[in-house]
Each structure stands twice: as C-alpha cells, then as structure tokens.
Design a protein that fits this description.
77 residues; alpha+beta; 3-stranded antiparallel sheet; two-stranded antiparallel sheet; 1 helix; 5 strands; elongated
Amino acid sequence: MNNHHVITFSPDGTARCLWNEAVPLHELGRLEINRASNIEFNNITQHWEVKDRKGKLRFFARSRSACLEWEQQNLQP
C-alpha cells in the first residue's frame, strides 16, 4: 500500500486529504469528514465496489483491501 500522504491547505486554513488512521488528524483540531467514495459489497457480482459521491462505479475487486488500496492511490486531493 502507498505510504505517501498528501494534505493540502486552502488560504482559509481548511485542510484536505484522503484520511486514514496513519496520520492523527484529530490533533490538528476539530474534524469535518466528507467521504470521497463509498466501498460496498455487491451481493450479485460478489465484488467489492468503489463508488464516487454520485454513485458512479470507479473500481471493483474481489478483495476489500484492494479497493482500499485503489482509493488511497487514486483519490488523493
């Protein structure tokens, strides 16, 4: 898995990043979390699916961890 973490800051101080537990973001202050995607299991296809906020299928795999890795590598701000 990619261990490279990117945090971008806007002029108003708002930070954006793909969150995971490796970086203790709560130490920066109050968090507001918005999902960039959802990972759900599709019972019909028997695959895990990564869908964006609009519900568009972005990636799928038999392994949830593969979906998490894809999300980490492809959804950085």
